[in-house]
Amino acid sequence: MARTDDAAYLRGSGSFHHILPLHRSSKPDVRNVTFSVASLADVDAITARIPAAGGTVVSGPQPLAEAGGGTAVVINDPQGRILRFVHGDARHLEALDRAHRDAPEHITHVVFNSTDVAVAQRFFEEALGFCLSDRTKIMAFMRCNNDHHSIALADSDANTLNHIAFVMPDLEAAMRGAGRMSDAGWPIEWGVGRHGPGNNVFSYFVGPDDFVIEYTADVLQVDDSYRTGGPSDWGWPARRFDQWGVSKPLSDRIKQAQKKIRFIEQ
């Protein structure tokens, strides 16, 4: 873990320098969501496409003056979210030891609430190169690599954060991690179960300041041959909330928390 007077940078069990920075603030909010980009050429290409797609370049590309470093472009999307795209950041050469085998590896997806999913979807496609994996009655699931989704856009009345998802090394780690969270006083608010779109195992928690996090594993891997599904492809029988039929419904607490975390204004 790296620290400054203002922030703590928390690593996962994988190679990223950190996966979650926590900054001092007078209220809970999201400063940005950061994406790892494969090359500087990709950073430049994203920067060039932002204005025409309805976004705004806030800064960069330029060196990132914080723990982990790298070269970054910072943007505002059309609905006010601050996104960063970073290449060349520092990485850990060694994985964490076995004592941390049930720790998250990295953030595998983020779900944004959106007042207009069509607008958000078009921006992620045209400016950022994402493509649609599945559309349910309430969400658009979008991918930028072989994971079924790295972003999901949820129909909502506000452009807020729905949740972030930490991927665990495997199903065993996901279950043990969920047990560790419960032991520490953070009960499961939804799950354990297996989702439809993405086929991933899940358990959800409401953390400090009502940030919603998901522990997940076994995320479906797809390629260009994957058939994009629509709302009619994703439905459950009455009183079922996951593929297995073992998950209870979302708690009232998580339903409220999924709506309240806002993004800072740039």
The low-confidence parts are none
Cα-atom Rg, whole angstroms?
18 Å
Strand order of the largest sheet: 10-11-12-9-13-16-15-14
- In one word, what is the shape? globular
Number of helical elements: 4
For the record, the CATH architecture of the largest domain stands as Roll
Number of domains: 2
Helix/strand/pairing class, anyone? Answer: alpha+beta
Portion in strands: 25-35%
Please provide the ordered H/E string of secondary-structure elements.
EEEEEHEEEEHEEEEHEEEHE
Mean pLDDT across all residues, rounded? 94
Provide keyphrases for this structure.
2,3-Dihydroxybiphenyl 1,2-Dioxygenase, domain 1; 32% strand; 266 residues; alpha+beta; 4 helices; single chain; four-stranded mixed sheet
Provide structural commentary.
By secondary structure, this protein is of the alpha+beta class. The protein folds into two domains: 2-87, 2,3-Dihydroxybiphenyl 1,2-Dioxygenase, domain 1 (Roll); 102-263, 2,3-Dihydroxybiphenyl 1,2-Dioxygenase, domain 1 (Roll). The chain contains four helices and 17 strands. The strands form four sheets. The chain has an eight-stranded mixed beta sheet. The chain has a four-stranded mixed beta sheet with strand order 5-8-7-6, with helices on one face. It has a three-stranded antiparallel beta sheet with strand order 1-2-3, with no helix packed on it. The longest helix has 13 residues, at 171-183. The two termini are 27 Å apart. The relative contact order is 0.14. The mean pLDDT is 94.
